[in-house]
Amino acid sequence: MRKRVLVTGGAGFLGSHLCERLLKEGHEVICLDNYFTGNKENILHLLDNPYFELVRHDVISPYYAEVDQIYNLACPASPIHYQYNPIKTVKTSVMGAINILGLAKRVKARVLQASTSEVYGDPLVHPQKESYWGHVNPIGQRACYDEGKRCAETLFLGYHTQNSVEVKIMRIFNTYGPRMHPNDGRVVSNFIMQALRGKDITVYGDGMQTRSFCYVDDNIEGMVRLMNSREGFIGPVNIGNPHEVTILDLAERIIDLTGSKSQIVCKPQPADDPMQRQPDITMAKGELGWEPVVPLEVGLMKTIEYFSGLLKTNPKILHQLVYR
Ligand code: NAD
Ligand code: UDP
What we know:
Elements: E1 4-8, H1 13-24, E2 28-33, E3 52-56, E4 69-72, H2 79-82, H3 86-107, E5 110-116, H4 143-163, E6 167-172, E7 175-176, H5 187-196, E8 201-204, E9 210-212, E10 214-215, H6 216-227, E11 237-239, E12 244-246, H7 247-258, E13 264-267, H8 282-288, H9 296-313
Helix pairs in contact: 1-6, 3-4, 5-7, 5-9, 7-9
């Protein structure tokens, strides 16, 4: 049955893939974005579809539309982006959640929150299960994002228990793929762009910190399954790829896959950089029948092809401002 679906942050990396997927399934999509880190190029190819609508709006102000489902993705996700204006990041997470939950309550829509593995902070439990409360520095550089997202989870649960809003909470682990911003400072985009341009690969610290990278198609599959999961199942549920690698290993793989002559150089590690991260996905497997299927090398090759195409068509891309 055709649904009307609101995607906040729809012009961003994950949001644009989600809009595409929902339109393919035959739904009507309202894509709402303030274009802080997203851009119209990500969704240009959807503009001809009569079931796709684009709205320039900031989630820190209330928004109203009659919709059946809401995916709340609006929030800068990369550390350099969310640390650019930390107060705005908190406002986006907290006031954005309040406005979106208020809308969901009013129009009786089901609403999914894009939460994050960052709620676990620099985790002392490994791998991370949903029952782990986390290890977050409330006054550190990452706090605006981590605490904002933690508060948003609290709000989602509150609107469910107090106002019977149907909510779903998804804790997303590092996700990569085409349409990541080439300038966003995240490790996969940085390393691939550096390798393609023959520049030094900048490993922060000794590169022994770990992450577990999930390809975007797997993430979107998990997101849609969670939204449509049984009534009463809220989560939070981890959606990520349990295949854990060190950052040094990632750098070496990207050099191999691109055939680059780039050298690896070590740079200082940012404060509060989590040393390990790996999702326990038992809950996602049991509740959603979901697990990632795209191997790291395959996903990296698709991402390399995307960035290499971008460099050919728009060689000035790295000089373009992200913030507008
Ligand atoms: P992104 O930066 O590409 O997309 C975020 C989108 O939200 C952008 O289009 C941006 O313009 C928009 N936005 C930001 N602030 C807004 C505001 N105040 N009002 C309206 N729109 C606003 O990031 P992404 O990787 O696509 O992440 C999407 C969501 O998933 C975010 O909520 C992020 O926290 C979460 N997440 C992503 C990852 C990941 O690895 N990509 C990991 C964990 C969580
Ligand atoms: N990182 C790195 N070099 C870079 C960018 C990132 O070594 O050019 C490291 C970073 O210190 C962190 C990991 O890669 O340990 C993942 O960083 P990213 O910003 O992609 O995601 P997050 O830290 O939010 O998981």
